[in-house]
Amino acid sequence: MSEEENDKVTLDLSRKQLKKVPKQDDAQNVRVLKLDENELQKIDNIDSYLKIEVLSLSKNQLLRMYGVCRLHCLRELNLSFNGILSIEGLKDCIHLRHLNLEGNNIKTIEHLNNNIKLEYLNLAENSIGSISDISFLKNLKELYLQGNRLTHLRQCDKYYPYPWKF
């Protein structure tokens, strides 16, 4: 483990039946926050964790992404298997490289224009019907779209010449 990884404080509060994000005295030191498999319906109290780089909220009861917009250091965000309806609140997360929104109820890919550093985007098992131009995601290396209602990728073939599987 590198010295840099060693310095990252991880707080794992997964499977604790939490209904709210707990406040922590040392929240400003936390770099990795795991809140998977809880009963969270909102991302409250997240602004005390302003320096987190990795946030995982998989398998909760979230309907909105509201709250992550203040996390300017965020590099990795996992909101898979919730009930999220749309992509929102990521405008100021300009360092975001990894975004997992698998297993939600998202219908369109939008509001990612500022997330040009994204390398990994998982939107599998949503309700997406079509994708228009995503050429601004120039660093994208992995895109997962299986289990959606896609019939074609409009204006994407010139940026991604190899065939995609739906």
TrEMBL record:
Record has Chloroplast as a keyword: no
Keyword terms of this UniProt record: Leucine-rich repeat, Repeat
Alphabetical list of InterPro entries matching this protein: Leu-rich_rpt, LRR_dom_sf, SDS22/Internalin_LRR
PROSITE patterns: LRR
Domain of life: Eukaryota
Keyword Repeat: yes
Pfam families, alphabetized: LRR_6, LRR_8
Protein name per the record: Centrosomal protein of 97 kDa
